Amino acid sequence: MVRVAVPDQGALEGLAKIVSKSPLPVIGDIHFDYRLALEAMKAGVAGIRINPGNIGGTRKIRQVIAVARDQGVCIRIGVNAGSLEKDLLPYPPQRQAEAMVTSALRHIGLFEQSNFKNLKISLKSSDVLQTVRAYRLLAGQVPYPFHLGITEAGSLISGTVKSALGLGLLLVQGLGDTLRVSLTAAPREEVRVAYQILRALGLRKRGIEIISCPTCGRCQINLMALVKKVELAVQGVAAPLKVAIMGCIVNGPGEAKEADIGIAGGKGYGLLFAGGRRLRKIPEQQLVPVLLEEIENLVQQKG
Predict the structure, then answer these.
(1) Same domain, 12 and 155
(2) Most buried residue among 30, 70, 160, 184 by CB atoms closer than 10 A?
(3) pLDDT digits (tens, 9 = 90+) for 225-284
(4) 187 is in which domain, residue-wise?
(5) Pair 171, 201: CB distance under 8 Å
(6) Does residue 191 sit in the same domain as residue 215?
(7) Mean pLDDT value of segment 163-169
């Protein structure tokens, strides 16, 4: 699914166009003005994300609920540590999880009073351990799906690490139904990182998984450039294949044999493996085109 921010009335026209052309469900992200939520639902969104604490009071929330019920729209209650109710502030840092859960339960209670249960819940903080703790605390108290995320996680590297830790800890416990990786980077990088997390946990099998070694004194080919070229070339491949690109003859042959396709580098050359068998020796300058050709052949065979 795709979440689209709807900050003002001017965004609604663009939202309607996106909904009409998107092959994926579109979620409207709404803050401060309940009328934006009403108009987003009229535009055909599959769901909306609101923070009930800033949407405009109980009467307005009930108007949102009424339209959502009529149109079958799911509502995500988004609780963020950075925008909790004033009476929950200030909280000691070690009690942030409890504050988020208290806020979530208040909002859930309001929706349940209106007999609306088409909900999912998110509890987000930039603190990995408090976020994990909050979801764990709430999991035993409500039956609703969870949307996972480490909010404001940071740049591509630091945000990836924090997201992998937080989401991984929750997912391996069976907590979480949808997720968003939050990075200060292009949205496509968020999607790539999310897929990598799911694949590492065995929850998704899609696309090329590249196994490659760190460079060391035994590496005698330009491994980093080689991996970068192959990774870029196979981004659009959906077939779930494991490709090993190893830089030396110590661990390389073993790892390459375990992959669907692999190479183990020597001095200016690489040994090509497929299906556990050594096929041939290839000069370094030909490794990328040969490897891509072998990947394409295997994809077609599995096709």
Answers:
(1) yes
(2) 30
(3) 889 999 999 988 889 999 999 887 777 778 788 889 988 888 888 889 988 888 899 998
(4) 2-200
(5) yes
(6) no
(7) 97
